[in-house]
Design brief:
The structure is a single chain. The protein is an all-alpha fold. Helix 1 runs parallel beside helix 7, helix 5 runs parallel beside helix 9 and helix 7 packs antiparallel against helix 9. The longest helix has 41 residues. It is rod-shaped, with a radius of gyration of 27 Å. The model has no long low-confidence stretch (mean pLDDT 78).
Length: 276
Amino acid sequence: MFLISLIDGNLANLFEDVNTKVGSIAAEVGRNPQSWNSGIFGLIRNLADNVMMPIAGIIISLILSYELISMITAGNNLQGFDTWVFFKFLFKSWVAVYLLSNTFTITMAVFDVGQHIVNNAAGVISGSTNIDISATIASMDVMMETMELGELVMLALETALISLTMKIMSILITVILYGRMVEIYLYVSVAPIPFSTMANREWGGIGTNYFKGLFALAIQGFFMMVCVGIYSVLVNSMTVSANIHMALFSIAAYTVILCFSLFRTSSLSKSVLGAH
């Protein structure tokens, strides 16, 4: 029957969109900035090295000069001056310069840790997120054979509407995944600036909060994997009951929940680590 074939086509497109997009989440969040797009990473590194690093050099010079003056004048206005402060200053300067010169190594190490966590989470989340398209459509065909013409027309409209909704959800999931990576690249592009403030107690809060933001972006991938795991459990526990309409809207609802949960992972990870 034409209507049943039309509905089957809508269902196949619907389930294929869901399977493809959800299956890509784990692959996307498990990649670090270097492997996600080497061209963008090269551009960002050049910007950081050639644009931000000279500014960071000026900042660290001013901060270290301020530190030296503070150390010398701290001893009762030079009355209790101790030459040990020079050794202390040299050590602090060495640490500050070392951190600044290894900015990218340290920054990428944060995302390597995040990638390790995500990959381990992917191994624990063993449930399949795929909907068995052929089996699901076959079971629905059996029920559709018993439906009247009016109900089939209504079901065709429902599947077309839900299929359109799922395409929108697929686009939103792509936006969330790509938006996270763009945010990572933006963070990395200015890394030398916050790294240059680490030597000073007052200005060091900038570097500390920057580290919190980096770890929040890295741990966000783990939260995304948890969302996929929850979705997997919901999908695998779903059964196509006698109410075919409810089954369709359940699949749509699960995917909407997945999309909303992925969107919330950014604020959640920043809240957990106290980044702002």
